[in-house]
Amino acid sequence: MHPVASFPSSCQVFAFLGFLASAMWINAAATELVNILRTLGIIFQLSNTVLGLTLLAWGNSIGDTFSDLTMARQGYPRMAFSACFGGIIFNILVGVGLGCLLQMTSSQLVVKLEPDSLLVWILAGALGLSLVFSFVAVPAQCFQLGKAYGVCLILYYLAFLCVALLTEFRVIRLATA
Asked: Can you tell me the distance from the alpha carbon of 3 to that of 65, in angstroms, rounded to the nearest whole number?
């Protein structure tokens, strides 16, 4: 007999309700944390872009980082490597996809992205350069990535973060004629 088949149906209902309650608690805690960070952004006059590039992005990645490191140290490096990319891709596709779908069903059929600032172009360019670098470097190393690749990506991220923050604080501007 299958173990789930012998599980009473009332226990299945309580298990589902427990899962639902924990998801709601996690959502409430995350919402409050984002609201606290927004409040700090208002107090210190930081834009949502700066908060998103720093505190929110790092906070969102910490859990994935520790779980991926744990998997790699326990002897599952391929699973950890897949999770590094798969989790982010899934979050982007589902998060952006559902957000755009909800906006399209509620108001209009077209979702417009308005690249009105230099920072948006810097973000897109940095992402494109990073993807091209990885697309060339990973096959060139026969898919055997070492510490040098990781160090290069971290240095690239730090350079991107400096340029993005300098742009946000208007140290770097477009030359107007």
From this structure: 34
Is residue 4 over pLDDT 60? no
**Total-model pTM:** 0.65
The lowest-confidence range among 18-32, 78-92, 94-108 is 94-108
Residues in contact with 64: Cβ distance below 8 Å, sequence separation at least 6, in sequence order: 83, 84, 87, 88
Amino acid of residue 69: L
Q: Give the ranges where 44-140 is alpha helix by DSSP (H).
A: 48-51, 57-73, 77-106, 118-140
Residue 100 tokens, joined: 């755009």
Distance CA 174, CA 87 (A): 35
In the 8-state DSSP scheme, what is residue 73? Answer: H
